[in-house]
Amino acid sequence: MQIRVAIVDDHGLIRDALSDLIRSQPGIDVVASVGNGAEAVQIAAEYRPDVLLLDIALPDTSGLDVIAQIHDASQTTRILMLSMHSEPEYAVTACARGACGLIAKSAPIEELIDAIHAVAAGNAIPFAGELTEREREVLQQIAQGATNCEIAERLQLRPKTIEAYSQQLMSKLSIHTRAGLVGYARRIGL
Fold this sequence. Notes:
By secondary structure, this protein is an alpha/beta fold. The protein has two domains: about 5-120, Rossmann fold (3-Layer(aba) Sandwich), CATH 3.40.50.2300; about 130-185, Arc Repressor Mutant, subunit A. The chain is about 50% helix and about 15% strand. It contains nine helices and five strands. A five-stranded parallel beta sheet has the order 2-1-3-4-5, with helices on both faces. Helix 6 (about 135-145) packs across helix 9 and helix 7 (about 150-155) crosses helix 8 (about 160-175). The protein starts with a strand and ends with a helix.
């Protein structure tokens, strides 16, 4: 079954590029693409996409302010926020208002595609504020390039425990590689 995606971003070039990249992925189709909050609500009602990619910064309103209206227009549509900013407070606000997560526009396309699949499957995309203190410590060490043995020594844990934390982080963040964890950690400022 195709995942039906709609894109809301005020920059036409970004909308077109995202549409082309997403359409090139098997199992995903872009059903609509618009540039402001009012149109976002309209396409949610008309197309009822599975996932709506919603930019935070829109010309007529904040994407955060139209989340409830989109849910009213299509209760089955799940919202994935897009942002130039990766600060945790944006993700916290977006999730508190009903979004399933936030992806930085600087993220690799693979991360966006993984997020679309996760959100369409009914999962939320975790953000740094949802990580435990120990998970954040391990993630920070991974971002600094430390090996599992080095991290274990620094945190006074066993290497097998660090490997378990790494796997847990990948699962929780819907990231599939250690390099992906490094990129995520850098985007959130760890």
